[in-house]
Amino acid sequence: MAEDWNAQRVTSLAPDAKVAAAGLKLAKTGTWSDVGYHESLLWGQCKGSGKNPYQVCADLAASAFRCSCPSRKFPCKHAVGLLHLWCDGAAAPGEPVEFARQWAERRAERAAKAAERAAGTTPAPDADPATAAKRAKAARARAARREQRITDGLADLDRWILDQIDQGLVATGESRSTALRRLAARMVDAQAPGVAARLGELATLDDKDPDWLGELASELGAIHLLARAWAGREHLPADLVACARREIGLSVASEEVLAAPGVEDRWAVVGTRDREEGRVTARDFWLCGTSTGRWGRIIAYAREAEELPTTFSPGTLVQARLHFHPGPGLRALSRPEQPAAEPIAAWNPGALSVAGAREAWRNALAADPWADVRPLLVAGRLAANAEGHLALSPRETDGERADRGHAALPLLRIGIHRRLALAAACDNVVIAGLICPQGLWPLSLLTGGTVVPL
């Protein structure tokens, strides 16, 4: 297993360059004790500023980590440091210490429960047909009642939006934030959590922000479109209805998704992005099929103090079968078993030009009007845009004028400039990123057939 790990792979797992550097430094100068391993389980204790050392564990086969430190970065610098110690041969074989053994047992229990749930998705063949029919009828009745509540709630909300347009978005009888919070509560009652979340975010808009009015108008327009799509869903294509159901918050059971045919491929993991959803952290894993060219988005969730999984490590290839949710969205599921992974090598996929990336975003919106981002590979030249910010400009070979600032894609990720400068061999680069109306969020850099996470 040691040959599967090296300093480059460890660095690619770090959430940012600061953690990568701090972890490497800890491996060289940190005060470590009880560093050992048993099969794929690795552990160690690292002295911190407190009385007790931090307890660090890693599952080398699953690229999973745990540390008792309070850091919200995952993996933290202590986990990165422990992995560097493993690569340097500083871990001694032995029986797991207590904290490592308990962590491994909890992981095994969770995996067993997940496997049981997956195995139990198909009803037993000897189930009573009458009971099954009765349950199915009750489920259909519940779904119909919920859809009616959603219909009534969205109709009320749409009338309010049109009233605001008539009166003017600035003028309102009650404070805008109060009205939006009241409407969000109404959407909770209507069992439309996705719409409630949108309204709750709108309620936090700051009037002092110069763009607040544009953001408000844009979001209310998206909600109005959603209400109209739901009202006319019987006349819309199935893919568009699936998008509307997703935005409203009507989830699709995992069993139903996994029962659909999957897409088998060797998937290049090009990056991850974490999002805060209230008290829950969501991690998006972005995968690109090396044979099919298809993109997939796997989402993992963790509550406070829970660890986020690292099933798919950026910069690796995984052999897996992905099952996609209905509609043109890219969300997918995979079976709970750990996919086989290897470092990406000799992968040289075609990349879009800057103009092609913008066209791809327009096409994505045409298929899914509520899309937040879309992944793509885009080739361009690193340069400053008209505002002086780092952007991806068209290359001269793309047939576009590279000096036209408005044609450049702004790079949105804070602190990316230094990492890109260090990783890129020249100004002409290929970036795997997420495109949105504001620009491009870089995930990784493609260079020499490999993927360098940013």
List keywords for this structure.
single chain; 454 residues; alpha+beta; OB fold (Dihydrolipoamide Acetyltransferase, E2P); six-stranded antiparallel β-sheet; globular
Structure description:
The protein has 454 residues and is α+β, with helices and mostly antiparallel strands. It folds into 4 domains: 2-117, no CATH class; 135-248, no CATH class; 254-343, Beta Barrel (OB fold (Dihydrolipoamide Acetyltransferase, E2P)); 354-453, OB fold (Dihydrolipoamide Acetyltransferase, E2P), CATH 2.40.50. Helix content is 39%, strand content 25%. It contains 12 helices and 17 strands. It has helices at 7-13, 17-29, 77-87, 98-119, 129-167, 176-189, 193-202, 212-231, 238-248, 254-259, 354-367, 416-423, and strands spanning 32-38, 41-46, 54-59, 64-67, 92-93, 263-277, 280-289, 295-303, 316-324, 332-334, 340-343, 374-384, 390-393, 409-410, 428-436, 439-447, 450-453. The strands form 3 sheets. Strands 6, 7, 8, 9, 10 and 11 form a 6-stranded antiparallel sheet that branches. A 6-stranded antiparallel sheet has the order 14-13-12-15-16-17. A hairpin with a 5-residue loop joins strand 12 (374-384) and strand 13 (390-393). Helix 1 runs antiparallel to helix 3 (77-87). Residues 121-126 and 399-403 have low confidence and may be disordered.
In short:
By secondary structure, the chain is an alpha+beta fold.
The assembly state of the depicted protein chains is single chain
Radius of gyration: 25 Å
Summarize the helix and strand pattern as letters: HHEEEEHEHHHHHHHEEEEEEHEEEHEEE
Query: Approximately how much helix is present in the residues?
Result: 25-40%
Q: How many strand elements?
A: 17
The proportion of strand residues reads 25-35%
Which structural category do the helix and sheet elements fall into?
A: alpha+beta
Instruction: Provide the number of structural domains.
Output: 4
**Number of distinct helices:** 12
> Largest sheet, described in full?
6 strands, antiparallel
Compute the average pLDDT. 85
Distance between the termini: 26 Å
Judging from the principal axes of the Cα atoms, what is the shape? globular
Give the low-pLDDT segments. 121-126, 399-403
